[in-house]
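WARN no homologs supplied; continuing
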Amino acid sequence: MRFILLSLVVMLLSHKAVYALDSADTTKAKHLKTHKVSQAIIPPQFANGNVQQYVSENLRYPDAAIENGLEGRVIVRFLIDETGHVVDPQIASQRLGVGCDEEALRVVKAMPLWKPATYKHRPVRYVYELPVEFRLE
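OK structure emitted
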């Protein structure tokens, strides 16, 4: 459990770059130089290119949602394991209902393999949140 919690903390912090100041003169911003210190984890990459394009091509708007004029966003949280498989997708946002949540989960569960996240050149598990938009045109 400690490992999972520590991994999540490291992953959350890894999205923010750490910078160090190169100059002692903090009064004039134009004289300050920044250098990227580290970026611990390289995030996973969707193997088929753009993940949002994949979602839009595979998402089927539920009939009940169309009939009720329902629009909104569902956020799906899932784990990408060391082999690139999607594991345990769950709804991480407020539910839309009338089949939208189930459809978002179906699309995520059907995803092809991802290129896994890496840390020190080794594949690691990574928690990913994907917004799935339902918009009537």
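The chain is about 25% helix and 30% strand.
OK
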